[in-house]
Amino acid sequence: xxxxxxxxxxxxxxxxxxxxAEQMLLTLFPGERPEYPDELPESLxxxxxxxxxxxxxxxxxxxxxVKMDGRCRNGVVRFxxxxxxxxxxQVYHTVSHALKQAFYQAGTALxxxxxxxxxxxxxxxVKLPTRAMLxxxxxxxxxxxxxxxxxxxxxxxxxxxxxxxxALDVKKSLAGNEMALYIGVPFCPTRCAYCSxxxxxxxxxLSLVEPYVxxxxxxxxxxxxxxxxxxxxISCAYMGGGTPTTLSAEQLHKVLSAVExxxxxxxxxxxxxxxxxxxxxxxxxxKTLREHGIHRIxxxxxxxxxxxxxxxxxxxxxxxxVEAMAxxxxxxxxxxxxxxxxxxxxxxxxxxxxxxxxxIGMDPANITVHTLALKKGSRLTEESGEPCAPxxxxxxxxxxxxYLREAGYRPYYLYRQKYMSGxxxxxxxxxxxxxxxxxxxxxxxLQSVLSLGAGGITKLVDPDNGQIIRLNxxxxxxxxxxxxxxxxxxKQTAADFQTALARRTQxxxxxx
Length: 512
Ligand code: SF4
What we know:
43% helix, 17 strands, alpha/beta, 16 helices, Double Stranded RNA Binding Domain, four-stranded mixed beta sheet
């Protein structure tokens, strides 16, 4: 679809505003792709978006006209003209915000319905109410802001505020000389149809596993030395991937021994390991995890419908999930998270309800309800597989919320993804006292995350200004094994950054 910026009044080149315009285009009309012709075609043709900025003595405005199939709607958002004289970054923020709201007005007028998350396009909707409450607003005010300014639906706004409260609770416990820890293990027994992660099928990459464990050991050792030298600590930890329990009990022992021996884990309040696929879980591995102080695992059925599991390329049955869960009880009690996905191809509302009942019946501490995302690179997008219609996904989620609440679960973190069916969300639900702080820290970017292993992204978070530096470890196991220099340099940068931050926070606490 053509997006055309009228030529006048823009502070700097209007091309800077392509990004917010594209975000709204993809949110409102997911199948459309933006086009920027050199010349304005006559009356925009049948489909197009025209965006104009006008500036009067007191008020400036952004107007957006959306034209589709011969129908046309307008949206206008006004703001004080002197906002355009502020520093560049603030002007960018003001104009982008107005552009998105005006685009949303026009787009929804054309569609004839609102979106669950209104004009919000980012993956972290909880950040807004968290910030609002940190700035002194009440939960009610934060919710009203989401509903009125961003036109978020009341149930979603309430959900975001509930998660913001959990984020604020966790934030209180964080210190400047701490980092969260992520360890990546990019192997799985087989590849699921909806997977776009870096996971390699272990049957094809078996020869990489042992060298990978050795390389990971070396990276943990280096990170441990750097952190200890600087008196930095790990606050919470998560081992994901991939499926870490694809490793043997001996390999898990080796990696976790390195964590214990080298990393400053004394203050680590929780350590979760993904044991996502029941076909990788054995009594030996669970025992090893427990012996190394892992206090939560994640077993991820996604669905308890055997035909859906099979269609998704999961080489296990629902009965194996029940067995794995029973086995894990002996080691972890109920401290298990279980992931579900709403909207999987071939699933139905009735099937999803059966899944919910069976998963709740297994009594895990946490249940995370995902909405299917059709990610680039997954077999689902490349080959076939019609996901459930957005209306069915909506019905599945509408069913899940009261089911989970009634069983004693409360939402504690949420995020959205690109290409989600129906533009919904993924929500983590937890029983009282069992929230996974790592999920909150990572998703709300409350603290730096030190990532080790292939595909890990170290995020260095400056809580004072919200700025984030990202340092990517190589994505694939093979590449990871060949990139020691890059990996070790990133660890040094991370340690230096956190040391400076720790000093600054300590200085502020002392009033120096
Ligand atoms: S278990 Fe997770 S990481 Fe592994 S193939 Fe399936 S979706 Fe991908």
